[in-house]
Amino acid sequence: MDEPSDLEARRVNAQTVIVLVVVSLAATFIARRVWRTVQAAKQTADGCGADCGCGTSSKSPQ
Amino acid sequence: MLDLPGSYSLSAGSPDERIALEVLLGRDTDHWHPDVILIVADAVHLERNLFLTSQVIELGIPVVVALNQFDIAEREGIAIDIPELIHLLGVPIVPTVAKRGEGLEPVKRALSIAASLPAPARRFVLPSAATAALAPLVMTLSQHGISNSASNMEAMRLLSVDHLEAHVADVPALQDAIDSARAALTRAGFAPARFESETRYTWIADLLSRTVIKRERGDRTRSDRIDAFAMHRVWGPLIFLALMAVVFQSVFSWATPVQDGIQALISRVGDVVGRVLPAGDIRSLVVDGVFAGVGSVLAFLPQIALLFTFIGLLEHSGYMARAAYLMDRIMRRVGLHGKSFIPMLSGYACAVPGIMATRTIEDPKDRLATIMVVPLMSCSARLPVYTLLIGAFVPATAVFAGITLQGVTMLVMYLLGTVVALAVAAVFKRTLLKGPVRPMILELPAYRWPSAHSLMVSVVQRCQLFVQRAGTVILSLSILLWALATYPKSTSNAALSPAAQQETQLTHSVLGRIGHGIEPLVRPLGYDWKIGVSIISSFAAREVFVSTMSTIYGVGDVDDNQHALQSRIVDERNPITGKPTYTPLIAIGLMVFYVFALMCMSTIAVTVREAGGGRIGWGWAGLQFGYMLVLAYGAAWITYAGGRALGFGG
Questions:
Q1: In the CATH scheme, what is the code of domain B128-214?
Q2: Taking the C-alpha atoms of B395, B397, B402 and B407 in order, what is their torsion angle to the nearest 10 degrees?
Q3: Cα–Cα distance between B280 and B84 in angstroms, integer?
Q4: What is the pLDDT of residue B153?
Q5: CB distance B280–A49 less than 8 Å?
Q6: Mind listing the pLDDT tens digit for each residue in B204-243?
Q7: Which residues of chain B make contact with A62, given a CB cutoff of 8 A?
Q8: Is the ipTM value over 0.90, yes or no?
Q9: Model's pTM, two decimal places?
Q10: 3-class SS at B41?
Q11: Is the CB of B350 less than 8 angstroms away from the CB of A12?
């Protein structure tokens, strides 16, 4: 059987791993968002590419 | 379905008309090619709407005309002979009342059969001399990818165009063909620049004389009677200001109980989740990062809903157009076109659609000047910052007629942004963007009761966007900021109080180190490192200021998260001096900073694109960001230093 201190250490490690994954996901999301915003600035098409409700996500050109 | 910008013609004088023309001619970059075109024409002002209709009919694409506001036309004594109009225009026409959904099914049926009807074509015949003069130009266009039918319309339109637009720029020898057509028309006794408008309006006048009977109006209409006050030189601006004061007062008076409820709910859920989770980093992440960060922003949903309800009410009732008219006098004085006020009004909701709305402005310099100042209008993302600080530091003292000092302070913040936007526009129009002032022509709609359904749709859409933003951008930033405020961890010292331990941990963290690094920059404004860090983090989006503050004050204090952020910042003390960290003067200075600072990545991106893209676009966006930052810092410093010099403390 594991000692209580081992269990505690494992729990802390598991928590650290989960936190690391969540923070990495958040960082990836923000980086992707920044990238998309910069790309939107380069586009010349209609729509703003921002998240203000005037984007062109529903557009399906022929 | 593609909704093109509303337009009175395809003259392509402004970017929005240019987009409509390119799409209708099948020459836009996204390769849209319409199967059927639905023209929504105003039955009350048919003459002005038939100009566009006559141009679109000539494109040879199936057309359906919805004669909207038919009920108002009937009420105003305008009788329209629909069968005769169908006969003369040669396209299906359906009377509609969009507000009540009347005529929707017939419109759908007309759209489904329109493609099987004969292709519409020009309904008038040009004098033979004019036809001969235009023939080579028509041939030049039709030989280079524009349909025969559309070439006839384009040939007439191009007679009054000074600079060739992008969609015809690749047609060889087009300018020579236009010059030849102009010369031939002049020789035949026509005025080329006025040829299209004179020809079309002559035909429209004849058509209307055969299809529309207008009863002479004896009395003034209800709109006329309201406008006698609402558009009065003196009363008009006062009524506008009073309406705005009521709007901002309601943000405090009506939204606060709901806000308290949402805050309590979020705290309760956070508390329950906190108890379920084992002690450690995950619990801290969920409670201090997610619930504190996202929850503090979500709590402002009632304010957002109320603001957009009022904006919707003013817009749908027909008052917003009056506000634009009232402002035209001031706009002209600063050198801007009256049309600039509509994008500036849109900026109260969000600067991004506001900047997009400048596409209706024909003059490139007027348009650029408007783009440069739209972000100074207080957008809805600033609302959580204003509400947090006003709620915490401005007393709800009654001023007059139910308006409190809180409502007045909010109004002053919005007015400050507007007044400075006009002043900055005046500077641009007298220096970098010098140019003549053009008169504004504005169609004032009749006053009407707003449709509850339309209002609800726009408010719900705005609220959804706010929640979506809180659940994505704010959530991700809150998690990142929590990590920065939590790691690396300091060694715990049991001798210290929980508050002192929290302070030690924050100071030791990456966020604390960054904050202390930038503290000298914000110290002259009276801010500590926590405010400095919150300002820096809100460069991504302004609401992040609130979530960062919430995360900072939540870290290490899991059991005490039910306290609202407002009371936490009121109680915050400087650990060295023991004096309050936040004072009313600092709060006002902070709000002034947020009035002027451009802290929105999306706005910068849109400015780059709408100002021309590439180096030029980035140059204008850089100038916009720079001048707004200087303005924000300078105004916040003047507020703080000036307030202290006048003995207001701080």
A1: 1.10.287
A2: -40
A3: 79
A4: 93
A5: no
A6: 999 999 999 987 766 677 888 899 999 998 999 899 888 8
A7: 31-33
A8: no
A9: 0.79
A10: strand
A11: no
